[in-house]
């Protein structure tokens, strides 16, 4: 077998003993060198008889190894040997070396004696080797066997007594004393047996004692018995049939007594190995030569074939240098008269690189925890049955892997980690061990192993953002999902399972427990109650994420929750006050120009943004077109010059509306009084004027009389109209202001173009009798019948009634 080479520079530096390794590597090298030293010592010898059953006891190794019983399991003791078959096993509980299978010495070693099987005892922790040899003792389990059960000899009657005839010897697969020891011949009057020692063993020869007479006896039958020396002895027999021929005085002679040929082991079946040639001076049948194998083993007969006529030697099966390197063929040439001659053909099988290297894995650890220093992953051996450069081996792995190959003893290698592994960078490594020989062409074997890096909890959960901003509209429903935080953990298994939680707030006054909650499994945040923008515009929550490793690792993120304003507050009028007390009256001089600032409506809105943008609009006025309201600031100004015909007292209904969706509004009533000048010390109101009128009796009487006449006239007119209407329609109904047309003419006032109303409205008004102030009394609006959908409608209720 070839020796294994190592081309890796790091391994050569390790082999040179350069002292730049970490302490851990020095300790490992110490144990490796200790194992090499012990492995290089004299191997221990054990023996066992062949054909013993599997599980048979061979020896106890505790004393030889210098270990106690409990150390065998702790140090991972095992038996390893070359090749893939494990013929021995070690019982770690007792230290007994046992057979793993039944051993056949003849199959293992053939005729080689002694039959020795080398093996090693491997201790893994720390690494140590012990060399040992097992000798397989032979037992007499094979009887001598003649390959030809009938041996035919053709002997001329002219042969003189004393002539010897070589006959086929028996085969015995046993060795030593159990091998073939002697032959016996059945009693006869013509031949006796002569035994001759040779390198191949005992050769039986027939010696002619008495001249043959074909006419007296044309055929002689003898029994040849082969005996071995085993206890008990075994035997085999063959029939020797002698045909007596006529006289032949010339034996065949080969042109060469020794032939030497070289044959490549990949030669095809039918390939001509050699050609032998012999000649005979006789003529006729006595000169006709036939070629046969002499003293040929069964292996030779299966591998070669000779042409009996031409002497050509052919292959009948493929050669294998690793099984048999040389063959010695004895070829006999016999003429028709029974005379023979022999020669030797020596066949040397030439080795080719036809066997790829073999790799036998002894130890393999497929899961390695991350972050560990140099760790042994695998222990394996390599071998190549070829010879020379064809059997020299080089081992290597990929260059881009954090692993190293280190040579040991007897073509053993260890695969170790070069540096600590990181599962998050790479969780699995596919390592291809390439074993190649140095033959031509090079053959290689690749063995791929998969090493999985076990996870260690060395990574804390990481949020996708350090700060989250969530927005939720106020007046939300409780348990509303407002957002999700997410954290990932680069670890695996339980080390990567993330649990979310709310951390205590930095502001102890913040009622966090009543505001939000978080789903511990998926990080979803929920608002626990309805939020009010006017009370809380924003707040911050610290969220923690912890994994389930041991120990657990955690991280945190900041969540800002912004409450969005909703239009849930109507405008509130600050001025004029609307608290039910005496109304505030604004005074306007009659000499005021157009655009005169009467007053300013001041209002606020609790909302923010466009929900708090206010606009002002004049809804109703005693005299439309006289006053106007600025939409953006609420200023009430005169729209034109005042005249003497304008009423003294005015009431204005102003609408304040925000810009929300939907918009909310509020209304305010203004009282405006027209005066001649602000220097008047007293301005009589209508009530005061009525009181003065009562003070004058004459005026009172006139008023009473006038009222009576007016009442009679009004009643007569109403009765007349009612009778006429009843006659026409059978029923009369009416509404509005019922006043005598003659004395109290009705008027329709068109409010258009004033304020911000989108439509024109008409109001039916009446002058009240008995008053010199010409005060308007609004009864009801007459709404046009062409108002469309979506247009504002003014309430029929009269806000000025009173």
UniProtKB/TrEMBL annotation:
Molecular function via GO: calcium ion binding
Domain Cadherin: 88-146, 147-254, 255-359, 360-463, 464-573, 588-688
Keywords for this protein: Calcium, Cell adhesion, Glycoprotein, Membrane, Repeat, Transmembrane, Transmembrane helix
Transmembrane segments: 700-723
CC terms in the record's Gene Ontology section: plasma membrane
Leader sequence residues: none
Topology of the protein relative to the lipid bilayer: Single-pass membrane protein
GO biological process, one term: homophilic cell adhesion via plasma membrane adhesion molecules
Domain of life: Eukaryota
UniProt-annotated location(s): Membrane
PANTHER family xref list: CADHERIN-87A, PROTOCADHERIN BETA-2
Protein name: Protocadherin beta-2
Taxonomic source organism: Vulpes vulpes (Red fox)
């Amino acid at each position: 077998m070839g020796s294994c080479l190592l081309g890796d520079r790091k391994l050569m530096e390790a082999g040179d003993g350069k002292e730049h390794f970490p302490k851990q590597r020095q300790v490992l090298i110490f144990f490796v060198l200790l194992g090499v030293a012990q492995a290089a010592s004299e191997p221990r010898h054990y023996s066992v008889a062949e054909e013993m059953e599997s599980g048979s006891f061979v020896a106890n190794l505790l004393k030889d190894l210098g270990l106690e019983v409990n150390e065998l399991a702790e140090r991972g003791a095992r038996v390893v040997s070359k090749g893939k078959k494990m013929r021995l096993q070690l019982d770690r509980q007792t230290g007994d070396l046992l057979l793993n299978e039944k051993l056949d010495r003849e199959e293992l070693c053939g005729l080689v004696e002694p039959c020795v099987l080398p093996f090693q005892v491997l201790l893994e922790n720390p690494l140590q080797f012990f060399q040992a040899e097992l000798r397989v003792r032979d037992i007499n389990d094979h009887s001598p066997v003649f390959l030809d059960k009938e041996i035919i000899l053709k002997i001329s009657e002219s042969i003189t007594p004393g002539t010897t005839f070589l006959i086929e010897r028996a085969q015995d697969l046993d060795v030593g004393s159990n091998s073939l020891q002697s032959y016996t011949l059945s009693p006869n009057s013509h031949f006796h047996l002569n035994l001759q020692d040779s390198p191949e063993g005992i050769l039986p020869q027939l010696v002619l004692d008495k001249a043959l007479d074909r006419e007296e006896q044309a055929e002689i039958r003898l029994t040849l018995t082969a005996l071995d020396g085993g206890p008990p002895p075994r035997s085999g027999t063959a029939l020797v049939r002698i045909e007596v021929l006529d006289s032949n005085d010339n034996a065949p002679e080969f042109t060469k007594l020794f032939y030497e040929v070289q044959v490549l082991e990949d030669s095809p079946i039918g390939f001509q190995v050699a050609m032998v040639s012999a000649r005979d001076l006789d003529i006729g049948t006595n000169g006709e030569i036939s070629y046969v194998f002499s003293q040929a083993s069964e292996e030779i007969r299966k591998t070669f074939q000779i042409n009996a006529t031409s002497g050509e030697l052919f292959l009948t099966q493929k050669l294998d240098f690793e099984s048999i390197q040389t063959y010695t063929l004895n070829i006999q040439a016999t003429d028709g008269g029974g005379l023979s001659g022999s020669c030797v053909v020596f066949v040397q099988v030439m080795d080719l690189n036809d066997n790829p290297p073999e790799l036998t894995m002894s130890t393999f650890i497929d899961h390695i925890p991350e972050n560990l220093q140099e760790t042994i992953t695998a222990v394996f051996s390599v071998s190549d049955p070829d010879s020379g450069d064809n059997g020299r081996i080089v081992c290597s792995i990929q260059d881009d892997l954090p692993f190293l190959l280190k040579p040991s003893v007897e073509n053993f290698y260890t695969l170790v980690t070069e540096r600590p592994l990181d599962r998050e960078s790479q969780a699995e490594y596919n390592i291809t061990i390439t074993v190649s020989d140095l033959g031509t062409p090079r053959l290689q074997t690749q063995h791929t192993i998969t090493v999985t890096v076990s996870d260690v909890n060395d990574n804390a959960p990481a949020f996708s953002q350090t700060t989250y901003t969530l927005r939720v509209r106020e007046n939300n429903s409780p348990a509303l999902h407002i957002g999700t935080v997410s954290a990932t953990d680069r670890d695996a298994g339980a080390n990567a399972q993330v649990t979310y939680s709310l951390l205590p707030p930095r502001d102890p006054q913040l009622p966090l427990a009543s505001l939000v909650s978080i789903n511990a499994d998926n990080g979803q945040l929920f608002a626990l109650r309805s939020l009010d923008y006017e009370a809380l515009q924003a707040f911050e929550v610290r969220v923690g994420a912890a994994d389930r490793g041991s120990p657990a690792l955690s991280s945190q993120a900041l969540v800002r929750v912004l409450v969005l304003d909703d239009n849930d507050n109507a405008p509130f009028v600050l001025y004029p006050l609307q608290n039910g007390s005496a109304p505030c009256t604004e005074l306007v001089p009659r000499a005021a120009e157009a655009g005169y600032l009467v007053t300013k409506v001041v209002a606020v809105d609790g909302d923010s943004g466009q929900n708090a943008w206010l606009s002002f609009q004049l809804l109703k006025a005693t005299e439309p077109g006289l006053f106007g309201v600025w939409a953006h600031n609420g200023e009430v100004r005169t729209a034109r010059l005042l005249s003497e015909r304008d009423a003294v007292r005015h009431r204005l209904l102003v609408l304040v509306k925000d810009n929300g969706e939907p918009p909310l509004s509020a209304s305010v009533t203004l009282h405006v009084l027209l005066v001649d000048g602000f220097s008047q010390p007293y301005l009589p109101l209508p009530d005061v004027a009525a009181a003065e009128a009562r003070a004058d009796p004459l005026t009172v009487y006139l008023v009473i009389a006038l009222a009576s006449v007016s009442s009679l006239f009004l009643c007569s007119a109403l009765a007349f109209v009612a009778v006429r209407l009843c006659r026409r329609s059978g029923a009369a109904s009416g509404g509005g202001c019922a006043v005598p047309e003659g004395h109290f003419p009705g008027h329709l006032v068109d409010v258009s173009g004033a304020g911000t109303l989108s439509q024109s409205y008409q109001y039916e008004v009446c002058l009240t009798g008995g008053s010199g102030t010409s005060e308007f009394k609004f009864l009801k609006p007459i709404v046009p019948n062409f108002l469309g959908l979506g247009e504002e409608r003014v309430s029929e209720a009269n806000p000025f009634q009173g």
